[in-house]
Write a structure and sequence with these properties.
Blueprint: H1 7-23, H2 26-40, H3 44-52, H4 71-83, H5 89-105, H6 115-121, H7 124-130, H8 132-140, H9 153-156, E1 163-167, E2 172-182, E3 185-190
Antiparallel strand pairs: 1-2, 2-3
Helix pairs in contact: 1-2, 2-3, 4-6, 5-7
Protein backbone atom coordinates (compact mmCIF):
# COMPACT_ATOMS: atom_id res chain seq x y z
CA UNK A 1 0.00 0.00 0.00
CA UNK A 2 1.14 3.52 -0.68
CA UNK A 3 1.65 5.44 2.51
CA UNK A 4 0.29 8.68 1.02
CA UNK A 5 -3.15 7.28 0.19
CA UNK A 6 -5.61 6.66 3.02
CA UNK A 7 -8.05 3.77 3.10
CA UNK A 8 -10.93 6.17 2.51
CA UNK A 9 -9.19 7.59 -0.57
CA UNK A 10 -8.55 4.07 -1.94
CA UNK A 11 -12.23 3.17 -1.42
CA UNK A 12 -13.34 6.40 -3.12
CA UNK A 13 -11.05 5.71 -6.10
CA UNK A 14 -12.37 2.15 -6.36
CA UNK A 15 -15.98 3.40 -6.30
CA UNK A 16 -15.19 5.91 -9.09
CA UNK A 17 -13.53 3.31 -11.34
CA UNK A 18 -15.78 0.31 -10.60
CA UNK A 19 -18.65 1.03 -13.05
CA UNK A 20 -16.30 1.90 -15.94
CA UNK A 21 -14.21 -1.21 -15.18
CA UNK A 22 -17.30 -3.46 -15.35
CA UNK A 23 -18.37 -2.02 -18.75
CA UNK A 24 -14.87 -2.00 -20.34
CA UNK A 25 -13.36 -4.59 -22.65
CA UNK A 26 -10.33 -6.75 -21.83
CA UNK A 27 -7.65 -4.28 -23.03
CA UNK A 28 -9.27 -1.31 -21.28
CA UNK A 29 -9.68 -3.37 -18.10
CA UNK A 30 -5.95 -4.19 -18.14
CA UNK A 31 -5.05 -0.48 -18.53
CA UNK A 32 -7.45 0.57 -15.75
CA UNK A 33 -6.21 -2.23 -13.50
CA UNK A 34 -2.55 -1.24 -13.99
CA UNK A 35 -3.36 2.39 -13.20
CA UNK A 36 -5.38 1.38 -10.12
CA UNK A 37 -2.52 -0.83 -8.88
CA UNK A 38 0.01 1.98 -9.45
CA UNK A 39 -2.16 4.47 -7.56
CA UNK A 40 -3.16 2.30 -4.60
CA UNK A 41 -0.30 -0.18 -4.28
CA UNK A 42 -2.68 -3.15 -4.10
CA UNK A 43 -1.61 -6.60 -5.31
CA UNK A 44 -3.17 -7.50 -8.67
CA UNK A 45 -5.59 -10.12 -7.31
CA UNK A 46 -6.72 -7.78 -4.54
CA UNK A 47 -7.29 -4.98 -7.01
CA UNK A 48 -9.37 -7.27 -9.27
CA UNK A 49 -11.44 -8.43 -6.30
CA UNK A 50 -12.07 -4.84 -5.20
CA UNK A 51 -13.01 -3.59 -8.67
CA UNK A 52 -15.35 -6.54 -9.25
CA UNK A 53 -16.86 -6.26 -5.76
CA UNK A 54 -19.86 -4.46 -4.33
CA UNK A 55 -19.49 -0.69 -3.78
CA UNK A 56 -18.92 0.36 -0.18
CA UNK A 57 -22.18 2.34 -0.06
CA UNK A 58 -24.26 -0.74 -0.99
CA UNK A 59 -22.67 -3.07 1.58
CA UNK A 60 -24.89 -3.99 4.46
CA UNK A 61 -23.69 -2.55 7.72
CA UNK A 62 -23.89 -4.62 10.86
CA UNK A 63 -26.50 -3.31 13.27
CA UNK A 64 -25.05 -1.82 16.42
CA UNK A 65 -26.84 -3.18 19.47
CA UNK A 66 -28.04 -0.65 22.00
CA UNK A 67 -26.13 -0.75 25.27
CA UNK A 68 -27.97 -2.40 28.15
CA UNK A 69 -25.95 -0.58 30.79
CA UNK A 70 -26.02 3.21 30.93
CA UNK A 71 -23.99 5.61 33.05
CA UNK A 72 -26.27 5.18 36.08
CA UNK A 73 -25.54 1.44 36.13
CA UNK A 74 -21.82 2.11 35.68
CA UNK A 75 -21.83 4.64 38.56
CA UNK A 76 -23.59 2.17 40.87
CA UNK A 77 -21.14 -0.54 39.83
CA UNK A 78 -18.19 1.72 40.65
CA UNK A 79 -19.63 2.33 44.14
CA UNK A 80 -19.96 -1.45 44.64
CA UNK A 81 -16.44 -2.03 43.29
CA UNK A 82 -14.95 0.56 45.64
CA UNK A 83 -16.90 -0.89 48.59
CA UNK A 84 -15.49 -4.34 47.83
CA UNK A 85 -11.91 -3.00 47.83
CA UNK A 86 -11.60 -3.09 44.03
CA UNK A 87 -11.83 -6.84 43.52
CA UNK A 88 -11.88 -8.42 40.06
CA UNK A 89 -15.10 -8.98 38.12
CA UNK A 90 -15.46 -12.67 39.02
CA UNK A 91 -15.19 -12.02 42.73
CA UNK A 92 -17.38 -8.93 42.57
CA UNK A 93 -20.05 -10.95 40.72
CA UNK A 94 -20.13 -13.42 43.62
CA UNK A 95 -20.34 -10.58 46.17
CA UNK A 96 -23.11 -8.59 44.47
CA UNK A 97 -26.10 -10.49 45.96
CA UNK A 98 -24.69 -9.83 49.44
CA UNK A 99 -23.20 -6.39 48.86
CA UNK A 100 -26.13 -4.64 47.14
CA UNK A 101 -28.68 -5.20 49.96
CA UNK A 102 -26.07 -4.33 52.61
CA UNK A 103 -25.21 -1.01 50.96
CA UNK A 104 -28.91 -0.25 50.40
CA UNK A 105 -29.65 -0.92 54.07
CA UNK A 106 -26.88 1.43 55.21
CA UNK A 107 -27.83 4.19 52.74
CA UNK A 108 -24.64 4.08 50.66
CA UNK A 109 -26.43 2.92 47.51
CA UNK A 110 -29.91 3.85 46.31
CA UNK A 111 -30.41 2.25 42.88
CA UNK A 112 -33.61 2.70 40.90
CA UNK A 113 -35.95 -0.22 40.34
CA UNK A 114 -34.50 -0.59 36.82
CA UNK A 115 -30.83 -0.47 37.86
CA UNK A 116 -30.89 -3.10 40.62
CA UNK A 117 -31.82 -6.12 38.41
CA UNK A 118 -29.31 -5.02 35.78
CA UNK A 119 -26.50 -4.98 38.34
CA UNK A 120 -27.46 -8.35 39.78
CA UNK A 121 -27.76 -10.04 36.37
CA UNK A 122 -24.51 -8.63 34.98
CA UNK A 123 -21.80 -11.15 34.00
CA UNK A 124 -18.24 -11.03 35.32
CA UNK A 125 -16.89 -10.13 31.88
CA UNK A 126 -19.33 -7.22 31.61
CA UNK A 127 -18.31 -6.03 35.07
CA UNK A 128 -14.66 -6.06 34.02
CA UNK A 129 -15.50 -4.24 30.77
CA UNK A 130 -17.50 -1.50 32.53
CA UNK A 131 -14.79 -1.05 35.18
CA UNK A 132 -11.92 -0.87 32.66
CA UNK A 133 -11.84 2.95 32.54
CA UNK A 134 -11.79 3.61 36.31
CA UNK A 135 -9.31 0.77 36.84
CA UNK A 136 -6.93 2.16 34.21
CA UNK A 137 -7.37 5.74 35.46
CA UNK A 138 -6.06 4.66 38.85
CA UNK A 139 -3.03 3.01 37.28
CA UNK A 140 -2.11 6.05 35.20
CA UNK A 141 -2.32 8.47 38.12
CA UNK A 142 -0.26 6.25 40.39
CA UNK A 143 -3.20 5.26 42.58
CA UNK A 144 -4.96 1.97 42.95
CA UNK A 145 -2.56 -0.82 42.11
CA UNK A 146 0.19 -1.73 44.52
CA UNK A 147 3.77 -2.21 43.40
CA UNK A 148 4.47 -5.36 41.40
CA UNK A 149 8.24 -5.07 41.77
CA UNK A 150 8.50 -8.29 43.77
CA UNK A 151 6.41 -11.42 43.67
CA UNK A 152 3.43 -11.33 46.00
CA UNK A 153 3.70 -7.62 46.77
CA UNK A 154 -0.03 -7.03 46.45
CA UNK A 155 -1.02 -10.11 48.45
CA UNK A 156 1.27 -9.34 51.40
CA UNK A 157 0.34 -5.66 51.69
CA UNK A 158 -1.46 -4.69 54.89
CA UNK A 159 -5.21 -4.46 54.50
CA UNK A 160 -7.79 -2.88 56.78
CA UNK A 161 -10.14 -5.81 56.25
CA UNK A 162 -7.79 -8.58 57.38
CA UNK A 163 -5.60 -11.25 55.82
CA UNK A 164 -5.42 -15.03 56.12
CA UNK A 165 -3.14 -17.55 54.50
CA UNK A 166 -4.97 -20.28 52.56
CA UNK A 167 -3.85 -22.92 50.16
CA UNK A 168 -4.74 -22.02 46.58
CA UNK A 169 -4.87 -24.59 43.77
CA UNK A 170 -1.13 -25.20 43.64
CA UNK A 171 0.54 -22.95 46.23
CA UNK A 172 -0.01 -21.10 49.45
CA UNK A 173 -1.11 -17.52 48.98
CA UNK A 174 -2.59 -14.63 50.92
CA UNK A 175 -6.31 -13.95 50.73
CA UNK A 176 -8.19 -10.86 51.88
CA UNK A 177 -11.06 -11.56 54.27
CA UNK A 178 -14.23 -9.65 55.07
CA UNK A 179 -16.86 -10.35 57.69
CA UNK A 180 -20.32 -9.98 56.14
CA UNK A 181 -23.43 -9.95 58.32
CA UNK A 182 -26.82 -10.82 56.89
CA UNK A 183 -29.47 -10.65 59.55
CA UNK A 184 -28.28 -12.80 62.44
CA UNK A 185 -25.76 -14.78 60.35
CA UNK A 186 -22.13 -13.71 59.89
CA UNK A 187 -20.00 -14.99 57.02
CA UNK A 188 -16.30 -14.71 56.27
CA UNK A 189 -15.70 -14.00 52.59
CA UNK A 190 -12.29 -14.63 51.02
CA UNK A 191 -11.15 -12.75 47.94
Amino acid sequence: MHKGMTAAARAELADAIRSRYAAAGAKEKRKMLDQFIAATGYHEKSAIRILNGIPASKRSHSRQRASLYDEAVRAALIVLWEASDRVCGKRLKALLPILVPALERNGHLKPDAQIRPKILSMSAATIDRLLRAPRNAGRLSGQGELSRSRAGASRCAPSPIGMIRRQAAWKWTWWHTVEVSIGAATFTVWF
